[in-house]
Amino acid sequence: MADEKSPADEDVMKDTVDASETQNEELGDDAIQDDEQEAIGTSDDPVDFDDDAASLETQVEELKEALIRSQADLQNVRRRAERDLENAHKYAVEKFVKDLLAVLDSMDRALELAETTDGFDASMLEGTQMTHKLLLDTASKHGVEPINPVGEIFDPQEHQAMSMVESADHEPNTVMAVMQKGYKLEGRVIRAAMVMVTKGAST
Q1: Burial letters for 61-94: b for 16+ Cβ neighbours within 10 Å, e otherwise?
Q2: I want to staple 198 with a disulfide (CB 3.0 to 4.6 A). Which of 142, 167, 194, 202 is the partner?
Q3: Which residues of the chain fall below pLDDT 70?
Q4: Span 8-53, pLDDT tens digits
């Protein structure tokens, strides 16, 4: 019959099927290997160490700058605290000195009156002058100094003009008279001197 196959034909078909299956298996293995290679990358890809090093150097520089700024801020805080403490010590007696100024003013007026009064007891005047000087010397030891600017150019930082007067004997803007002395504490004005200031003669 025509449909019957000989044993030789069956062997050829079997070899062909086996070869086809082997080829498919090899193709499957290659596909799996390609997938795995794509998933994990090839070991030949270069690692960019230069970028990592540059990034680390940038971070180190930023940390250094932050540390320098922190140290500068700390130094400024320390200086400010030291200055505040120094000022607290220097001006701790300011309120007491301001209260003491009324006593000095009274003694100034008493001396002016005694020096212009005929027949005033000389020994009493001398004692009052000595007491006044002792009081000023004691205040000076604690940084207090009077402002008595007669004949000086008017300074609005230290003087308070109470009146303006014409004078042919003085330059304009000169302190002609002191109505009340001013005082400083450690170089800082705690009361301005009340003064009379000259102005140019009107034409």
Answers
A1: eeeeeeeeeeeeeeeeeeeeeeeeeeeeeeeebe
A2: 167
A3: 1-50, 201-203
A4: 555 545 555 455 555 555 545 555 455 555 544 444 555 555 677 7
The tokens of 97 are what?
A: 């000195």
Query: Quick check: 199 and 165 in contact, CB under 8 A?
Result: yes
Which amino acid appears at position 105 of this protein?
A: D
C-beta separation of 159 from 149 below 8 A: yes
How many other CB atoms are there within 10 angstroms of residue 154's CB atom? Answer: 19
The listed CATH number (1.10.530.10, 2.30.22.10, 2.160.10.10, 3.60.130.10) that belongs to domain 88-199: 2.30.22.10
Domain ranges of the chain: 88-199
Is the alpha carbon torsion for 58, 64, 67, 68 positive or negative? negative
